[in-house]
Design a protein that fits this description.
Blueprint: H1 5-26, H2 32-44, E1 52-54, E2 65-69, E3 72-79, H3 83-87, E4 94-95, H4 98-111, H5 121-136, E5 142-149, E6 152-153, H6 155-168, E7 173-178, H7 180-187, E8 199-203, H8 207-210, E9 211-213, E10 217-223, H9 224-234, H10 251-260, H11 263-267, H12 269-272, E11 276-280, E12 282-286, E13 291-295, E14 298-301, H13 303-314, H14 318-327, E15 329-336, H15 340-350, H16 358-361, H17 366-376, E16 383-385, H18 390-396, E17 410-412, E18 415-416, E19 418-420, H19 421-440, H20 453-458, E20 460-462, H21 464-470, E21 482-484, H22 489-505, H23 509-522, E22 528-529, E23 534-535, H24 539-548, H25 550-559, H26 562-577, H27 582-590, H28 595-599, H29 617-635, H30 637-642, H31 646-650, H32 653-669, H33 684-687
Parallel strand pairs: 3-5, 4-6, 5-7, 11-15, 16-19
Antiparallel strand pairs: 1-2, 2-3, 8-13, 9-10, 10-15, 11-14, 12-13, 17-18, 20-21, 22-23
Helix pairs in contact: 1-2, 4-6, 9-13, 10-13, 19-22, 19-26, 22-26, 22-27, 23-25, 25-29, 26-29, 29-32
Amino acid sequence: MKITQYSYNKFLPEIYDRLQEMADKYLDTFNEHQAFNYLVAEIFETTHEDKFAHTDGPNDGGIDFYIKDAPIYTISQCKTPDLDNFFYSNTPITFNDEIIDKTSSAIDMLLDTSGSYEVKIQIKRLRGDFQRDKKADPESTKLIVIIAVLGELTPQAKAKFDAKKALFEKDNVYLKLVDWKTIYTKLHELDYPEDIDIGFEISYNNKLKDVLAHDDYCYLLGNAYDLYNAFNDHGWSLFDWNVRLQMHNSPVNKRIISTLSKAKGRKTFHHYNNGLLITCKKYTHREKQNIIKVEGAQIINGCQTVRSICEAYDGLNPTDQSHFRDTTKVQIKIIKTTDPDFISELVITTNDQNPMNPRNLKSNKAEQRDLQNNFRTLPKRWFYQRKDGEFESYKRSTTRIPGFRKSDFQITQNKYRIIDNQDLAKLWYSFIGYSSHSLRGGVKFFEDESDNAYTKVFKTVPTPTFWSAFRSANFSPNEDYYGPGAPSVYQYLLAHGIAKYIDAKRISYNKNRANAIKRGIIGGVLDGDLESGVSTNQRETIDKYLVSDIEYNINIILSNTREILIELYSFIFANKYAEVDAAFSKNIITNSNEKVFYSKGCDISAYPDTVKSANFIIPSTYEFIKDCMKQYYFEYESELKAAPRLKAYFWQRDTIAKIKLKVIQRNQSIRDYDQPWKLPGKTFIDSLPSI
């Protein structure tokens, strides 16, 4: 991909959003440096709790995070500028060789078998485990070192990096540089053209030993280098029909690359790797040329293998690349089929190298198929995505797929009504009183765990007894409150639209901070240019001001309580309408001012720009909840500021009960207040229209 200055300008706002996502997912409060650590880990490695450890901080030994997947170890040193500096830079910020020196010290510490180091216990354990494995099997034990900068290295630093990279390779230590271009490319690697009819050739050495051919399928021991060429020619389009499009690197990739880095591993690669599964419209066996040509081809199993082949080959020197081309084989099965259901089953049943997302294993359950059909038969159809990458795979298919026409779900040229069952599980769980669980995270919705979350979300429905109890601020979920069956698609859609509205109203960290600084300049508290919103004060002065800015702090709270806000919606609706059942949800979605909002895929721009009226239920309820959260902040400000972890403070059920009590109190106290989102002389709940 060609990186241009325009690309960098696009990269700036995109990286803000990505860092905010990482903070929401992994941190209690926003910290750009730690968020960058997690971003690097998530898109280039893994954040799986069994392998990943975040160690950034005092006594980290120069290691911000590490991945332990013995005998392969990965450490990383990440550097990002303060976002203030990053935001106002029109060109990439450069980093000197300090990061190279710090990383080199971390490597020396891990390799040193005799020295003593003042590092935290996690690093001591990492060092001990690495040295133990290296002593037991020095050839297999490898250390991968990522140096990641949110910018780029100076020429001097890059030269030192190259020198260190060559120096450390003799110790089975492999340095990898990640800069802004690497990140940009990784984030956009799936930006490929639609509807490409792919064809490529796979060669083999001996037709008697390497091929077993039938009319509609064949087995082949093919040359791996042909797959390298296929990816260079077609890119990620090779995997359009793979219903699981998870392309980030995994521990499996590392083991493949490690195997291919040695001559012995290249010669025996086909014995250790499960190979590829390719579907196609047609294949032709050219026996005289020792070639099989596939047309209309898709690699539906083996994405990680292909990517690892490419990365391994690119990392070899010319002599080893020649050896690779001559010796490296891979097992391939080719099936002539374009049946999407058959392909979907093949993906699930043949994938055993990388862990399959548990939701895919439940994707063919009766309740999931029924939901997809029910969403598809709504007057305004929605695509219910029940497996990874399903909609994109179907949308890009060049063949007709039964029951699927992308025009049925289309809003504009590139926008569709889509609801994903992973997202739905979390927001519905919040909607029915489990927001504390959702906010805390770690709920395995598609696995058979003790909390039985899958059953609560997809196989039971709240009863009238549930909604009666739910009206209390001290509500606690009870198994007896749920009956057999599944919620209506209208109930799910109601919760989905609320979540989308909350997401759209949220102000990003950067915008929230910039707006607050501008208010400080207008108020004369901060010095700076009003037009640009840039303050000339020191960061310490700005941070001290931000602590006192009420709107800034309220926005931070709203950003950290998405799941609670969803539960507050259902709490308010239950107090107004008694039961938030299928009939009520359908009436809101189809017979109210919310109709256009839902028909346009829950796009907030579907509401009139001037909407303030309580007749618009979702917007007015948000404004009321925001007002309640502001009152909660005023009453519990000292408690909030004393909390070491903001999200941990909010996910306590007693905290949620206090917020609900504040909603009840505030509803009464604003009766005589003039607010655009309620009727004069009425409480907010009384102002909501009848449904």
